[in-house]
Amino acid sequence: EYGYDSLARSIKEQNADIIGLSFTTNQKKYVRRFFESCDVPYNRMILAGGVQGTLLKEQVFEDFPRLEGICVGDGEAAFTELCRRFEAGSDYLTVPGFYFKQKNRIIKNQAAPLYDIDPLAPPDYSFFYSGSNFEAGGGYHQMLVSRGCPYRCHHCCNHVLREVYPNPEKYVRFFSPKRALEIVKLNLAASPGTR
Question: Given its phi and psi angles, is residue 180 left (phi above 0), alpha (psi -120 to 50 degrees) or beta?
């Protein structure tokens, strides 16, 4: 919330070709402030992802005209493929799981199929569970060892998210017990004060 100056410095220092933002509806104000506070050169590609992009797609382009692409659905494989093609100088506008804004049109690629989550890198919770963030949470460390939700509650977006994918029957996925224990141990080691 307060790190826009350091974020702007980091963007200039790292000189990255692609900048990715992931956010939900209640975090839009931070994205808006990012665009107001950080002078990102126009030769940098800015992408968005997360629940907001997956659910609202074209609306996100309207809300944030500087965005060039939106990741729809799970992003690990899609973003990796986009970076591979971008670096090779090949056509990245057809990468499954992305919408792209090109002049007066939007290129709409279908979400990539859901995949096994076990091979993914362990989630990095270090930002959320360090210093004042950890203390504000009462010293508890919350972790997820699954992705997706089996329920279709009316007050939640999961029933809509499920239908984004070409294989919605795989929407609910779990880490294997061995992998889940590895993640728990890594996070507890990183947060020794956990209750």
Answer: alpha
What residues have CB less than 8 Å from 3, skipping those under 6 apart?
A: none
C-alpha triplet 125, 113, 183: angle, nearest 5°: 25
51 class by beta-carbon count within 10 Å (0-12 exposed, 13-18 middle, 19+ buried): middle
- Check if the beta carbon of residue 95 is closer than 8 Å to that of residue 72: no
Going edge to edge, which strands form the sheet with 69-71?
Answer: 18-22, 45-49, 69-71, 98-102, 105-108
**Amino acid found at 120:** L
Total Cβ atoms within 10 A of residue 125: 19
Contacts of 76 (CB under 8 A, 6+ apart): 120
Q: Dig out the tokens for 20 from the structure.
A: 């990715």
Q: How far is CA 34 from CA 2, 6, 46, 130, 148, in A?
A: 10, 11, 12, 23, 29
pLDDT along the chain (195 residues), means of 10: 76 89 91 88 91 94 96 95 96 97 94 94 73 67 87 91 95 95 86 71
Q: What is the pTM of this model?
A: 0.86
